[in-house]
Design a protein that fits this description.
196 residues; alpha/beta; Double Stranded RNA Binding Domain; six-stranded mixed beta sheet; two-stranded antiparallel sheet; 8 strands; 26% helix
Length: 196
């Protein structure tokens, strides 16, 4: 029974930790867009130049692109190098912030001793816990935002945009952060499957 309780408590703690770390995502679709008209996608060609707002790491850049490609291919789309129906692009922004947290402050209980000259005896007193107010602390943190853009290649108009925002656990954006954000964005986009 003890073993089952410890497994259950570990599972509950894991679920709480995972839900706390999950990013918030939002998707916008241009009015009147019919995704059944699109079958192929490609990536915006920046001719090897470093673009601002991109991942500063080639590994993260490739992982973001491969995660997006995998999500689109799961919906029946195909990646095309020449004349794709839509062009994909992304931006990464990392912002610093300060979060204030307020907690109640309590005193520690203690016992004190004293000598009474009138009774010539030692005495003691007990001071219990009491509420002493609140303490506020500031905690620095970083928030990462990944924005995916889908542009119609013929009209050069933005037809879809998805963004995910979440706290970063490390100094920079990691591949795992990017994959989690991409999955979070595509959960909110209902693209028709090829079989539908």
């Amino acid at each position: 029974m003890k073993k089952y309780f410890s497994i259950l408590s570990l599972g509950i703690v894991t679920v709480i930790a995972l839900t706390r770390c999950s990013p918030t995502s939002h998707v916008e679709v241009a009015q009147g867009v019919n995704f059944r008209n699109y079958k192929t996608f490609g990536w915006v060609n920046d001719n090897g130049a470093k673009k601002t707002g991109r991942a500063d790491n080639d590994i993260v850049d490739n992982n973001i692109k491969s995660s997006v490609s995998a999500e689109l291919e799961a919906k029946g789309w195909q990646e095309a190098d020449q004349q794709p129906d839509v062009l994909m692009d992304y931006n990464v922004i990392v912002q610093k912030g300060i979060r204030k947290e307020t907690e109640p402050a309590y005193s520690y209980p203690y016992t004190g001793y004293f000598y009474s000259p009138w009774s010539r005896r030692m005495g003691y007193y007990y001071n219990p816990i009491f509420f002493g107010g609140y303490t506020t602390s500031t905690i620095p943190f970083k928030v990462g935002t990944l924005t995916l853009n889908m542009v119609d290649a013929k009209t050069n108009k933005l037809i879809w945009q998805g963004c995910a925002k979440g706290d970063l656990t490390s100094k920079n954006v990691t591949s795992e952060d990017a994959k989690t954000d991409v999955k979070s964005i595509f959960k909110k986009l209902n693209l028709p499957n090829e079989t539908e």
